[in-house]
Design a protein that fits this description.
Elements lengths: L12 H52 L14 E3 L5 E7 L4 E7 L11 E5 L4 E4 L6 H4 L1
Antiparallel strand pairs: 1-2, 2-3, 3-4, 4-5
């Protein structure tokens, strides 16, 4: 009486190599897309801080008729960190004007498309620091 041949179960080396190759392709697409999404969503932190500082300066102007009054909570040359720490907002004021610049910090500094975001007393939004994107893309 002959014994039946037992078949080995498992994956062959070729099957494993194909699975790893497919995984590498998917990760090669997914990781850069995810990183770009994180950077783009981080811009909201900078914009929110710009608007918050601008509102404080507008309240100061309403109360003291000057953006740089000594009684204002924010003075010329001040730096204010955003809530999530992704941006530092630099304040540049005169009696009748202000310009705010949000500079990216940490991982957000990899945002080559937008770099620093700016906001003026007239509400004009802009980019600074060698940004490669457009205002519409960044704001």
């Amino acid at each position: 009486m002959s014994t039946p041949i037992q078949r080995q179960s498992g994956f062959t080396l070729i099957e494993l190599m194909i699975a790893v190759a497919i995984l590498a392709i998917v990760m090669g697409i997914a990781i850069p897309s995810y990183n770009q999404w994180v950077i783009e969503s981080g811009r909201a932190d900078g914009k929110a801080q710009l608007f918050q500082v601008a509102q404080q300066l507008e309240r100061c102007f309403t109360r003291y008729s000057s953006y740089d009054d000594a009684a204002c909570g924010i003075q010329d040359g001040a730096s204010v960190a955003s809530d999530k720490g992704k941006y530092i907002v630099a304040v540049d004021t005169t009696a009748t004007t202000f310009t705010l610049t949000a500079a990216p910090q940490g991982g957000q500094a990899n945002d080559d498309e937008c770099q620093s975001l700016t906001l003026t007393h007239t509400g004009q939004r802009g980019l600074d620091g060698g940004a490669t994107g457009t205002i519409d893309d960044c704001w």
